[in-house]
Amino acid sequence: MVRRNFIFDTIKSVFRKYGYQQIETPAMENLSTLMGKYGDEGDKLMLKIRSNKSLHDFLLEKHPDEYSKNVIEEFFKLYGYEWLPRASERALRYDLTVPFARYVVMHQNEITLPFKRFQVQAVWRGDRPQRGRYVEFYQCDADVVGSPSLLNEAEFIMIYDEALSKLGLKDFNIKINNRKILSGIADVIGKSDNIIDLTVAIDKLDKIGLDGVIKELLEKGFTIEDIEKLKPVILLEGPNDIKLQSLRDALKDSTIGLKGCDELQTVFNYIANCPLQNATLELDITLARGLNYYTGAIFEVKTNEVAMGSIGGGGRYDDLTSMFGLPNLTGVGISFGADRIYDVMDELNLFPSDTNQTTKVLICCFDAEGETYALPLLHSLRQNDINAELYPAGAKMKKQLDYANNKNIPYTIVIGSDEMESGLLTFKDMASGLQERLGVKEIVERLTL
């Protein structure tokens, strides 16, 4: 938790610097709130919570006249377990964005637009646990609603760059695309009705390769001619400005596609005035992100230092709140995958050494008299916001010092009869082994440096 909080606190500090305020939402949402917002795969992975309605109650509703407890076996022959989803009324949060949209609608008369919020909470997915994929994991989200300005997209790129750089990452890509460009591509090849199939397939390019994408598109009804038109666009290479010009040429007959190009150019122009520290901003036309609610810019962040999936992502959603009765409220947001970032930092040994400690100094004494003498000192240290412990009297000094070493406590204060008589306490740096005789005031000053 100390290491995890180091990640949380670092990201939160950047969010606050950019003007974001923290909120939280419940772990559970109404199932109707979440279903259909994440695509078919999301609906399957959602962890549903069965209501308190029993099988007995369900059967009484279905067959109020003929039901008896003796027909359980017949029931399962008829219905199997299909009654279970229908008996689910709630689900655990799949992400933080849809609950945030509900929050905005519920509090629309209390918040000031544009509303900038951040949220650090757990989400749940019924996935098979493995490295980088968890059933329960934490997301660190920031969103702004009520502002169509593309300055927000540019600032999110800066937030990613600053926060991940502060965490110690030196080489990572912030990939960006625009859903309007993907719609334009579908429009140009006459497959506007198949936009979801197209985006889902090309989003898998880095996982299944070009041949796999082609196979999936053919299975979805795309023709060889369609795929030949797609290939040059999917396989774009070169600097961002060259890619963008190639896209303009390919999408010259698509109004929505050209609008997506214009939006990306605006974001690139903003970033040109605010150089990034360690991030490489990359236009990636294959980036689609499966979530159905994105309508504009989409982001994904990947580190180049460790083999790991995306450690962040997000995008623009123009009408997410309409599902809750508040239409035409645009929004854009990003998310940091805290658990994947933890795995990356752990592998690269990026956690500061002091994140392993919670106590700065341990007071060691030989007997009950020393313990009594130490209590005012302990109080003084804590009053000065110094994390301090007093080891209970009676244990051998070696055991007390071993305790300090095992907990990575950097300093100890030893109190014996000589120390109590002189008022000069033995202050020890546990890393170097250096010992000094210091007064209480000097010790407090040393520990507050």
Would you mind describing this structure in some detail?
This protein is 44% helix and 19% strand. With 449 residues, it is an alpha+beta fold. The two termini are 25 Å apart.
Q: What features would you highlight for this structure?
A:
449 residues, alpha+beta, eight-stranded mixed sheet, five-stranded mixed sheet, 19 helices, 16 strands
Short description:
With 449 residues, the chain is α+β, with helices and mostly antiparallel strands. Helices cover 44% and strands 19% of the residues.
List the helices and strands and how they pair.
Elements lengths: L1 H16 L3 E2 L5 E3 H4 L4 H7 L2 E3 L4 H8 L9 H8 L3 H4 L1 E5 L4 H10 L8 E10 L11 E10 L5 H16 L5 E7 H10 L6 H8 L2 H15 L4 H11 L5 H11 L4 H18 L6 E5 L13 E7 L8 E6 L13 E7 H11 L12 E5 L2 H16 L4 E3 L6 H10 L4 E5 L1 H6 L2 E5 L5 E4 L1 H8 L2
Parallel strand pairs: 1-5, 7-8, 12-13, 12-14
Antiparallel strand pairs: 2-4, 3-4, 5-6, 6-11, 7-9, 9-10, 10-11, 14-15, 15-16
Helix pairs in contact: 1-8, 1-15, 8-14, 9-14, 10-11, 13-14
Strand order of the largest sheet: 1-5-6-11-10-9-7-8
Let me know the largest β-sheet.
8 strands, mixed
Question: How many DSSP E strands?
Answer: 16
Mean residue pLDDT: 88
Classification by helices and strands: alpha+beta
**Beta strand %:** 15-25%
Terminal-residue CA separation: 25 Å
Uncertain runs with pLDDT below 50, 5 residues or more?
none
Overall 3D shape: elongated
